[in-house]
Amino acid sequence: MIAISGALLVALLAPQQADTTITVPAGTRLNLHTFAGEIVVETWDRNEFRIEADHGPGETVHVSRSGSVVEVAAEGRSRIPPRIDYRVTLPAATDLDLGGVNSDISVTGIGGQVQATTVNGDVRIEGGSGVIQVQTVQGDAMVTGARATVRAQSVSGSVLLRDIAGPVEAQTVSGSIVLDGIDTDDAEASAVSGSIFYDGEIRPGGRYSFVSHSGRTTLALPDPLDATISASVLSGRITSSFPEISAALEGSRRGTVVVGSGRASVEAETFSGEIRLVRRGEVRAPGRTNGTI
Q: What is the mean pLDDT of the chain?
């Protein structure tokens, strides 16, 4: 029998760290998918990708580049997929394809396109352009400060889109949706069991659709308003701080009213809940003080 000292045993079981830096041409995309562990992406002003990974003994992280794509993959010594925490630093213009199963994903300062998907975990994206797609099953999806087309989805969690310029689409089954500081002519939000909040511009010719099965829908709209408003509730009520809207819709279950020239289309529908139409600045977005939903 071979005796192993306590110090050697600790060394064998201690977490390991891989640290790889590679030079990349402009336009290189990162593909990083993991089974478990945190993925954190930050930026710098070098034409290099740095991938740091904390992993267990006997596990290996592979970084390879083929053409314009850098792939990060890992393997373990057992059949159980390894848990690896990644910290990645790369140029701000990089496009990202990130994924995990039991993973939180955080991206800060990226100006490229982003696709981030996880099953159990939160996704937080700050910045971005082009197209940003965020999806989680059990967790919250958050995108802030993007100049992009943003599509965010959660099954059991909330969606927060804040300070976005560009088309937005948000979906959740069980959770709330907050669209705060939105500048777009195309917004769509749907929730099965949860509230919807929208505070943003209403552009001439724009289309804005908000559908909830069970929950309050609050729309904070600019004043003066130039839109055709259609609202419908099956079990609930419609309220408004715009006199022309309240005169036409309050006390009814469905209706349409033209405000101004009616050049934008705003549709709000709920099965069981309240629809509130207020002026911007009259109500605060949920979580505005602490940055959460």
A: 90
